[in-house]
Input
Amino acid sequence: MQSIAQPQSIPGLPRFDARPDALPAPRLCTVEEVMTRNVVTVPYDMPLQAVADVLLDCGISGAPVVDDTGRVLGLVSKTDLVRWQMDGGDGEDPSDADSEQDVEAATTAADVMTKGIVVVQAGSSLPEAAGVMARASVHRAPVVDSAGMVVGLVTSMDFVRWVAALP
Output
């Protein structure tokens, strides 16, 4: 039988207790308190090269895809772009284009986005939002108002920052 290493004390730091008797009660708050408000969105008809440029220029890994009124239709991520490229750019040919360049130019955010995404309502509590995202195994979700308009984005890192800020 192999023994399990016991936690060691570090001089100057409080002793590590692997099983504290009581954890602090988390401060209840809503998604709106932790979400990113200035969300970069892309229109559904944006050409794929422009989508890639937006993601690179903004230093983000994905963005909600919206219709002409600002309602969320899906998410497009760097993974979606790579998947499209690895599939040879011919997964769902949006036109009767004759050349590879024509296919790429005719392909839009709507053609490669992830559809049927998880969205979080703006007034949701953090535990509600975390539960929705955990059940769907997603790390980001657009936050929408009652009309389905994107008002923010919440990510798993927002939850980590919230937990880290607990007293």
User: Anything to note?
Assistant: The longest strand covers residues 72-77. The chain has one domain: 31-164. The longest helix spans residues 48-58.
